[in-house]
Structures are given as C-alpha cells and as structure tokens.
Design a protein that fits this description.
The protein has helices at residues 2-16, 53-60, 88-94, 114-121, 132-138, 140-148, 183-195, 203-209, 272-282, 294-303, and strands at 30-35, 38-44, 71-76, 99-104, 125-127, 152-159, 164-166, 198-202, 224-228, 247-251, 256-258, 261-265, 287-292, 308-313, 322-323, 333-337, 340-346. The protein has 352 residues and is α/β, with parallel strands linked by helices. The strands form three sheets. Strands 11-12-10-9-8-13-6-14-17-16 form a ten-stranded mixed sheet, with helices on both faces. A five-stranded mixed sheet has the order 2-1-3-4-5, sandwiched between helices.
Length: 352
C-alpha cells in the first residue's frame, strides 16, 4: 500500500501548491478522498481565513454516503483547534471517514500532534509520515517560522559574468543602473513578489534605484516592503513610501504606525539582522526576500541567517564596480533563460 499512499500524497502536494501566495500565515495544504482506489474528492487551502483543504475535499464529494468507506489523504496534519475555521480533525470524525493518511505533522503548537491524537481517540486508522520530506519542503516557510521563530529568508541578486552587481554610482548622478538580466527574469521576480510575504532593500538601494518593490508585471498581491533607514534620512517621495503596499521602516529613532507605513525602532549597536527577523516574526511575516544592496545581503550571509538564495548571472562583464556578495556555495540547480542563468542555493541545515 505504500506506493498507493505516496501516489495520493503526491496529488495532495500538487493541489497544495496552488495556494502559494494566498494562504500565509497558514500553511499550504492539499487533500484527496479516495474510495475503492478512485479519487472522489479533492481540495486545497485556497486563501487565509477560508475553508481548509479537508473541508474543500469533503464538500467536493458528490455522494457523501461513500465517505464512511473512504480514505482521506492530507499533506499536513488536520488541525485540532478552532481558529479562523473549525477543527478539521473534528470534521473528519463527524463525517465518519475511517482512515486518514498524513504527510507531515503540523509544527504549530496548537496542533503539533493533537489532530492525530483526536483522530486516534475517535477510533480512526491513522498513517503518518508518507512523503514526509516532500511535505515539509512544501511548507518550508511555515516550518521555519514555527520552529526557528523567524521568517524563511531568501537572498536574491543579479551579477555579471565577472562578478559585479552594479557599476560604481553616486546618488543623483550618471550612470543609471544597467539591467544585468533579461525581461523574462525581471518578470519572474515580479511573480516571486506575489508568492512571498515581504521584500527588503537597504537605504543605499532606495537612494540609488528608487524601487517600488511591487508586483506590477504579474497578477497577485504586493508584498510588504521593508527597508532599513537608521536615521530616517529617506525622503517620503521615494516610491517605497507610496500607498501601493505596506512598508516597514527599521530605524533608530521611533515607533510609529502611520497609514500603510510602520516605523520600528531597533538598536543599531548590536545584532541588527536578528532584531529585524524577530520583529518580522512578531508581524506574522513568514518569508522575506532580501533584494539588496551589497551591505544588506552580506549582513544576512555573514550572520548565517538565510535559507535560500536565487542568483541571476547575466551575459555582461563590467570590468569593475560593486562586487557580488562573498558567497561560497554551489547551486543545487540552475535554469537558463536565453542569455541569463538562475542558480538556486539552499541552506536547509539551518531550518530543522
């Protein structure tokens, strides 16, 4: 039966991925209901605050009388508590589903085995740990958030073939920034902005590039924008302060919530990155993409506080300029988009 269980949990994972960018701070979860080796119901968690995967799967079954002879598969342990929605474990018991196959245990303290316990107490047959590694990987953001008490950190930059991320530039003077990658890569970054909770840049990047950090070239929500502005020297005319998305400004002077802007005071004499991640955890931000510049990226690398890096290499040579971060890791996979290459790096030993 192991192969059969794996087949259906794989389908749960496929379904769960459809919720990427819409369910945070909840996890992505998929569920299928199987009767006589035939799928009779499917569902996934579509949006935070709405029905969970198991509920959607049950609701999709046309003949509910078959539930009492079916198996429900779910990529993550059914919840045991009443949060935004009722307990899924209670719903499964109420619907008289006799067998439950689970991919991975929920790390959230209000669940963390309690859903499994409820099902077993009710006399249900429960199997756990099917494709557990793949199910944890699916929810790497969720697991990092609850086990490490910080967001999942993704580093992102573009570099030339000879290892530079920018030319030497001064604020307000030529030359302007040169695009290192192609249009496809830039569109891909906008897609990522709909999938992750927050994007972060340092003060110099705001001064030099005036980024918007919005998903203008892709359909979906904008991420929370984050910058570090120690002395609050950035003029509010910069695009990062417009009303198109929420913005958090880490500084040394004040706490203040003003419309879509939040100013958070931290101590710049010690552990800046750790403080930033701690505050973002408090704000329920599960993932953050650090987009630049060099000083900000290097701070995360040197602190060992990163989980993934996405590094573009364009078909250019600058000869001199701002060097890419010092980053001595090998990519786990690469993709080529015409003349640009994307390397994916993973630091999973920091997660569990």
């Amino acid at each position: 039966m192991t192969g059969t269980h794996e087949k259906y949990i794989r389908r749960c994972i496929e379904l769960a991925r459809k919720g990427l960018g819409n369910v945070s701070p909840n996890p992505m979860v998929g569920s299928v209901i199987v009767y006589n080796d035939t799928i009779i119901g499917e569902g996934y968690h579509r949006k935070w605050g709405e029905a969970h995967a198991e509920v959607n799967a049950v609701n999709s079954v046309k003949d509910k009388s078959l539930l009492k002879e079916s198996t429900i598969y779910v990529s993550l342990e059914p919840c045991a508590h009443f949060g935004k929605t009722p307990s899924c474990a209670d719903m499964i018991v109420r619907e008289n589903i006799p067998k439950i196959v689970v991919g991975s245990i929920d790390p959230y303290f209000q669940v963390a085995g309690k859903g499994i316990q409820k099902l077993k107490i009710a006399g249900r047959d429960v199997i756990t740990g099917v494709l557990e590694k793949e199910c944890i990987e699916l929810n790497k953001r969720f697991y990092t958030f609850h086990l490490k008490k910080r967001p999942y950190v993704i580093l992102k930059w573009a570099q030339t073939k000879d290892g530079f991320i920018d030319q030497m530039r001064e604020v307000g003077k030529e030359p302007k920034a040169l695009w290192i990658t192609n249009d496809y890569c830039r569109t891909l970054v906008h897609k990522w902005r709909t999938e992750e909770d927050a994007f972060m840049v340092g003060t110099n990047t705001v001064l030099l590039d005036n980024p918007q950090l919005t998903a203008r070239n892709w359909f979906g929500r904008n991420p929370v924008r984050i910058t570090i502005d120690r002395n609050l020297s950035l003029d509010k005319s910069f695009k990062i302060f417009n009303n198109e998305a929420e913005t958090i400004v880490f500084n040394s002077l004040k706490y203040l919530a003003d419309g879509n802007l939040t100013f958070v005071k931290i101590n710049f004499k010690t552990n800046i990155i750790s403080q930033v991640l701690e505050k973002l955890y408090d704000e329920q931000i599960q993932s953050i993409v650090v987009e630049g510049g060099l000083k900000t990226l290097q701070s995360f690398i040197d602190a060992g506080l990163w989980d993934e890096a996405r590094v573009f290499t364009g078909d250019y040579n600058f000869g001199n300029g701002i060097p890419a971060p010092a980053f001595r890791h090998k990519p786990k996979k690469t993709e080529v988009f015409d003349e640009s290459e994307l390397g994916w790096y993973f630091n999973f030993e920091t997660i569990f």
